[in-house]
Hints:
- By secondary structure, the chain is of the alpha/beta class.
- It has ten helices and eleven strands.
- It is elongated.
Amino acid sequence: MLIYGIHAVSAAIDRGFDIKRIYMSNQGDMKRREEVARRCTGKKGPNIERLKDKKSYEKRLEQLGLKRNEIDQTQGIVAELREFPYRTLIEVLGDCKDEVRPILLVLDSVTDPQNLGAIIRSAAFFGVKGVLLPDRRSAPVTATTIKISAGSFTEVSVVQVGNLVNALKELKNAGFWIYGLSEHAKENLTALEFSGPTALVIGNEEKGIRDLILKTCDFRAHLPAKGGFKSLNSATAAAVSLSVVSFSKMKFENGP
């Protein structure tokens, strides 16, 4: 797996991701790239491969599978991960034990890697402990996801699960209340109180949350629309919903 851009590569080094190799262009402004390279010095791996000119740099990245529009966004530095460090649900639940009212985000059939990246960025902003997604019919974390997340992928644990219904049941057993976002729901999300551990389920913008997943939720609610459109894309819906949940929790903790 490849990640690119100075900020993303730097964040991956800080988090101790398993980086196999770093590819660097020796052209243009080298100052920031050299800072990243120095931070790798003395550590076990990664090797640094320096490409002497633009042509050889681009050719090398094409061999690695990057497309032209991706190469143009690399800022002259690419890191090759051995694998993305997904975490387990048990690990994330362990992280939540120290939180009074933790928030988890559950994604059902979000297939656009750019939307996933934007969602991870919003999750980091609102202090979400983990993002759960199914290992099928869902976008995995890709180089595009990491780029769009702007480094926030190091702040939020991402969990792949085999069965989303079973995962929700595990969350319930751990004390979480499950809230499903649906434009067809009668409840208004802004009218609900989120006083305990909360898992917010966001579905695909075209089909929403699948029926079985929605039935597993403790609550089903919609975002109130003022205009003619009744729904938002998954990334925007996640950001707005997380702001509602976070503000409600803040009121609950701090009083009116």
